[in-house]
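JOB MANIFEST
job_type = single_chain_structure
chain_count = 1
residues = 339
[input]
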Amino acid sequence: MALETVSCSATPNRPGAFVISLDFELLWGMRDKRTVDAYMPHFIGARKAIPLLLETFDRHGVKATFATVGLLFFGDKERMLAALPSERPSYSNRQLSPYNGHFDTVGADEDSDPYHFGESLIRVIKHHPAHEIACHTFSHYYCLESGQTQVQFAADIQAAMDSARFMGVELKSLVFPRNQFNPEYLALCKEKGIRSFRGNETNWLHTARSGEQESLLRRGFRLLDAWLNLTGPNCHAYPREQPGLPLNIPSSRFLRPWNSKLRMLEGLRLKRITKAMDHAARTGTIFHLWWHPHNFGVNIMENLAFLSKILQHYGELHRVHGMQSLTMREVVDKASEDA
């Protein structure tokens, strides 16, 4: 029995939508949790996985939103350091901030340091124009951690905008790092040009919390929910415009990476996802799948094979129900058409 099932009322005369967003961050998203040596295969693998992901998406006619940490828009340390904002997060836990000594570990350029730079990968994504490059803040900013301020967040977002613009990219969508969605910052995001953000799944397992507030109990239930229907399909109606605020396009499911120890349960994991996609297609709602490229960094072929099954299922839903693959930016465009 589901712990909490989200109501998914159908939107009249509108097809269901399949939305994919990826949190592209490399070491910037893991530096306070993993060492380079411990997670090296995932980071190197992520660089191999991104071109393969793009080919797989394009082959199935599926679009994706790559929410990218602003620090990845550089190819050398000199330009990176010149772009750092003067206002920086003053987290109570100093370990959370990359400005407290981490830049001393950054190499000279992308060739010598493939963990901190992503300019070449962003250029690869740009060569596949169906996809969207979006914002994952500049420094992998944690919006719910104690000590940081709205002024610091504003400076971080502006730095992300400026870094992307240097590469000819306009950031219109936002994914909050660690899913630390902070409603007090939404109006500021809209002022900066952000039109949409990925909110959290609307059940108690995914309510936004700081790292200190997170619990093993919630993590355990979230893990089980990948195979067992604990929270329902987590599909969502198309968002409606709210004056002065970006649109919320909540997540539906995190795509957990392939695990050899759990390979006997792959059928359950696939069914959990495809059943929710079926629900979205039938009710004219949105199914929003997300993960990190580094989740595919190990066991790349197995992860791509599993993803291909999901995308093949989307193809069938597109044929039968007219389901559409949309980037986050395109969801906003669809919502604006009906405003």
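[summary]
The beta strands are 17-24, 65-68, 132-135, 173-174, 196-197, 247-248, 253-254, 286-291, 324-326.
The chain has one domain: 17-337.
exit_status = 0
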